[in-house]
Amino acid sequence: MDSTRHARRRAIRNAVTTGINSLALFNPQRATRLTNSYYRAMHKNLIHPWLSAPMFLLHVPKSAGTSMAYALGKPDPGHLRVDEYPAKIQECLSGRDALLCIREPVDRFESSCSYMEKLRGEGNDTFVRTASKYRSASELVKAMDAGYCADLYFLRSASSMIESASTLGMKTWVVGFDKLDTNVAEVARESGHDISEIPKLNVGQRSRAKILCGKERAILNKMYAEDHELYQRSVREGFFRV
After folding, report:
1. Where are the alpha helices (DSSP H) in 174-213?
2. CB-based burial label for 22 (10 Å; 0-12, 13-18, 19+)
3. Quick check: 184 and 195 in contact, CB under 8 A?
4. Domain span at 143
5. What's the number of domains the chain is made of?
6. 210-225 CB burial, b ≥16 within 10 A, e <16
7. Which of 80, 146, 171, 219 would suit a FRET pair with 7, their CA atoms being 20 to 30 Å apart?
8. Given its phi and psi angles, is residue 190 left (phi above 0), alpha (psi -120 to 50 degrees) or beta?
9. Which of 212, 87, 107 is nearest to 158 (CA)?
10. How far apart are CA 131 and CA 144, in angstroms?
C-alpha cells in the first residue's frame, strides 16, 4: 500500500515537473512562481514536527541544512520563508528561536549549480530544473541579473529568510558554515538547547576550481550583499544572534 502511494506521488511530481520545465522555456517568471507554490504544498506537512522542537531551522539551500535538521532530530522543513507557511503555523512559530547556517554566497551558488548537475546526471527529478534550462552557471547569473529566477527557492538569500522570521518576533542564531561543528556546539551551550553532533549529509562532490569569472562573482556579491555581510560577521564571531 505504501509503495503504491509513493509511486503515485512520484508520478504526480514527475508530471508537474515536466509541465513546469516546459513552461520555463517560454515564461520563466511564471514557472518560478509555480515551482515555489508546488514546493510549499509538498513540504507543508513536514513543518508540524518542528512545532515541538527547541528551535526552528531556516534551511538555506546548500548550507548544511539537511545535516542540521538531522542533528535536531526533525525532517527537513524545506527552503521556505516563515511567511509562506499557513497563518496557524506562523502563530506557533511566533517568538521562537531559529537556527540558520550562513555560507559564503558565491561558494553557495557554485555548489548549488554543481548539485543541479549531479542530480541531472543521476536522472533525478528536481524543481531546480526551472533554472537549469540555462546551459551554464554563467548564463544563470546573467538571467538572475536580468530579473529571472530571482526568487526560486534554491537561489534565495539567507538574509530574506532571517528578515521573514523577524516579522514574527523570532530571533535567529546564525552559525558560520566554515566551522559548523564548533559553531553549532557553541550555540547549543549558549542557548541551552540540545543539538546532536552535526553529520555530513547531502554533500555534493565538486571541484575546488571556481566556475565563475570575476565579473559574474561581482554580480552575485552585489545581489547577495547582505548575505556577504552576515558571512563576514560569522568569520569574525563564529556565531551570533539576530
Report:
1. 180-191
2. exposed
3. yes
4. 2-241
5. 1
6. ebbeeebbebbeebbe
7. 80
8. alpha
9. 107
10. 10
> If you count them, how many residues does the chain have?
242
* Nearest-angstrom CA–CA distance, 121 and 135: 14
Full pLDDT tens readout for the chain, 242 residues: 446 655 665 555 555 455 545 544 455 555 555 555 655 555 566 778 888 888 999 999 899 988 888 888 888 888 888 888 878 888 989 999 999 999 999 999 988 888 777 766 665 544 455 555 666 788 889 888 888 766 677 788 999 999 999 999 999 999 999 988 888 888 888 888 778 778 766 655 444 456 888 999 999 999 999 999 999 999 999 999 99
Q: How far apart are CA 234 and CA 178, in angstroms?
A: 9
Site of grid cell 527529478: 125
Contacts of 24 (CB under 8 A, 6+ apart): 31, 129, 130, 131, 133
Closest by CA to 137, choosing from 157, 158, 114, 153, is: 114
